[in-house]
């Protein structure tokens, strides 16, 4: 089963395709969710009502556009470029995160998210 989600904020939106994992299944069951966006370098993250354990395959360095779940903060993490702890141009998350999937389009669209923006995640039907 493949899940598709839509992420919406005041200046834009994007969609993502998620693999079926314990964390993505829990997230899908909690949708729709509304939260407050936070930025950390070139990463957007926000709280969710989901708690999850670290899964096999969790990684700290990921590709831009990865949809990750930060288990320590019960948050979705959406990196699109370097963070304050990156080495060079890599996307380095705060700690190893569960990998859920990837954004469907250009991850640089996330550059329009401002710290404190309302952000909403919903399932894409069909």
The portion of residues assigned to helices is under 10%
Secondary-structure element pattern, one letter each: EEHEEEEEEEE
- Let me know the largest β-sheet: 10 strands, antiparallel
The number of helices is 1
Structural class: mainly beta
**Ends distance:** 12 Å
Task: Tell me the strand percentage band.
Answer: over 45%
Gross morphology is globular
Q: Compute the average pLDDT.
A: 96
Integer-rounded radius of gyration: 13 Å
The count of DSSP E runs of length 2 or more, i.e. the number of strands, is: 10
Spans where pLDDT lies below 50 across 5 or more residues: none
How would you characterize the overall build of this protein?
With 126 residues, the chain is mainly beta. The protein is built from one helix and ten strands, in the order ββαββββββββ. Strand 1 and strand 2 form a beta hairpin.
List keywords for this structure.
mainly beta; ten-stranded antiparallel β-sheet; globular
Itemize the secondary structure elements and their pairings.
Blueprint: E1 3-9, E2 12-18, H1 22-30, E3 33-36, E4 38-39, E5 43-47, E6 59-62, E7 66-70, E8 75-79, E9 91-103, E10 118-123
Antiparallel strand pairs: 1-2, 1-10, 2-9, 3-10, 4-5, 5-8, 6-9, 7-8, 7-9
Structure described in brief:
The protein is mainly β. Helices cover 7% and strands 46% of the residues.
């Amino acid at each position: 089963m493949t899940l598709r989600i839509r992420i919406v904020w005041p200046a834009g939106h994007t969609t993502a395709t998620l693999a079926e994992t314990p964390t993505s299944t829990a997230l899908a069951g909690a949708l729709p969710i509304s939260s407050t966006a936070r930025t950390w370098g070139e990463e957007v993250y926000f709280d969710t009502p989901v708690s999850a354990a670290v899964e096999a395959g969790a990684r700290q360095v990921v590709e831009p556009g990865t949809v990750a779940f930060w288990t320590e903060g019960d948050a979705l993490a959406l990196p699109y470029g370097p963070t304050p702890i990156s080495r060079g141009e890599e996307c380095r998350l705060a700690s190893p995160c569960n990998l859920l999937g990837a954004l469907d389009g250009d991850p640089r669209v996330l550059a329009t998210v401002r710290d404190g923006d309302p952000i909403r995640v919903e399932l894409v039907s069909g």
